[in-house]
Amino acid sequence: MVNLAKDDQEKKWIKEKAHVVPTHGMYGLAQMLKRIGIDVINLVNYALDLHEYQYNGFEPGFSKYTKKEQVLEDLITVVKETKKAIDSHFAKYEVKEVSQRIDELLKELEGGK
Q: I need a surface site. Which of 26, 44, 52, 57 has the fewest CB within 10 A?
């Protein structure tokens, strides 16, 4: 991914910060990942919407959400899409336990729908 950097400053950021991405850098990192075949842009958009909701609640003009059910639906989407990304891009690593825990979380979340 470092090879995709546009300049030395971006290379430095990737090496030092990409593993702990600040909120304002998530979309840019998602765009970089897409260029190497890992498309998580929609996932990041959902996550950023939920982050915005965390700060603003249901405040008109600040949140895309008007009901708790909408928040829950997007939260479930984020969990499912994260699992898909892990399964498809990190299958060579032992992620069985992570996958099982995600399944447990989904059962719990979907039971609350």
A: 57
